[in-house]
From TrEMBL:
Superkingdom of the source species: Bacteria
Biased composition (Basic and acidic residues): 18-27, 35-46
InterPro entries reported for this sequence: Stress-induced_KGG_rpt
Span list, region Disordered: 1-69
Bias (Gly residues) ranges: 52-69
Database matches in Pfam families: KGG
Protein name, per record: Stress-induced protein
Taxonomic source organism: Caulobacter zeae
Length: 69
């Protein structure tokens, strides 16, 4: 027996909020992070190396990388 089919699904999370409230949250963006802590935005090499490190440890779901082609 599937419980989802028995009760109607309501809107949850951001979908349940009014548009003005969503805009208010979106406007804040990255404002909670002080500029001195945004190291990737300031240093492209640091960001590239971190992405490469993360990508190499990721399993990738069986996708082929550019080097595998």
């Amino acid at each position: 027996m599937d419980l989802d089919s028995e009760r109607p699904r309501g809107r949850r999370g951001f979908a349940a909020m009014d548009p003005e409230r969503r805009r208010e949250i979106a406007r804040k963006g990255g404002a909670s992070v002080p500029s001195e802590k945004r190291s990737f935005a300031k240093d492209r090499d640091l960001a590239a190396n971190a992405g490469r490190k993360g990508g190499s440890s990721s399993r990738g779901g069986g996708r082929l990388g550019a080097r595998d082609l």
